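Progress narrative, Year 2. Work on Uroporphyrin-3 C-methyltransferase from Lysobacter firmicutimachus advanced from sequence curation to structure prediction during this period.
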Amino acid sequence: MNSPLDTVSPPSAPPPPRRGSAAWFWLIVVLLLAAGGGWFGWREWQHRQAEVRAAEADADQRLEALNQRLDTMRTNQEAQNRRLVQADNTNRVLRDELHGIGQRAALIEDSVSKLADPDRHGAQAMRLDETELLLTLGQQRLLIAGDLEGARRAYALAGGVLDGIDDPAYLSLRQTLLQESAALKELGIEPRVQAMAKLDALAQGLSLPAATPAQAAAAEAPWWKRAFGVLIDVQPRDRSIATHPDDRAAALAGLQLEITLARAAAERRDVEGYRAALKRAEAWVLRLSPPSPAQQRQLAQLRELAALPLSLSVPTLGTTLQQLRQLRTAG
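Result:
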């Protein structure tokens, strides 16, 4: 019979440790460390990118501020230049006004010295009539006849007559006469005379051109071609240059005639007729010579002559006469 001790089985041994759980644990730890490192690196990269963007934004702001400063400096510089130009114009006006004040002071001094003269008893009305007549003659000689020298002499005589008037009421009139006389003295040669002189020089410089190679070849042609070449002349349809001596002589005569007509139009101040005659003269030049630098120079000379004015432009002409009549009417 077995004892109870015999029926009790011996205690079982503990199970061996599981290696797979430790490996998974360390794998999870490594993954966590890698995820943490990646997250930390990503945060650091984002931080650096934010710093780079902030630096770029700061650089853009500084560049924009610098451009604004440059624009402001340019604006200030332009404003300074405008102020300098305005100051220069103001100084010029002030100089002119000062010069006018000096002239007026000299005229006042002259009038006061004449007023202090006990012997000043002249026919003022007669002097004013003579002044008005001289001013009218000077203006008409310049406008009608284009006589610039005659107008200058008339104004000089009017100034001498007006100097004999002691009335201070005509002080501004004397100053106006001085300014108008100065404007006439500044004028150069009368435009109509200059245009006619250039036309005369152009007409004297014209001459028949030398024989062309075609004419020389015609001179050496056979007798039958020389005999019948006068009656029949075969040329291309698009040729407009005169090659025959008779044609060239007629074209040169037509050119001389147009220049003469232009001179006559300039003498009577007919601007339309003057320019029309020179335009027709250009056609005769094209008829006389083939395209060449000499032809272009001659055409340019004709166009330059056509652009010349035929009348003087004096904006202040007649100002003294008008002021004199107003003063006499008011008096």
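Confidence is low (pLDDT under 50) at residues 1-9, 210-217. The chain has twelve helices and no strands.
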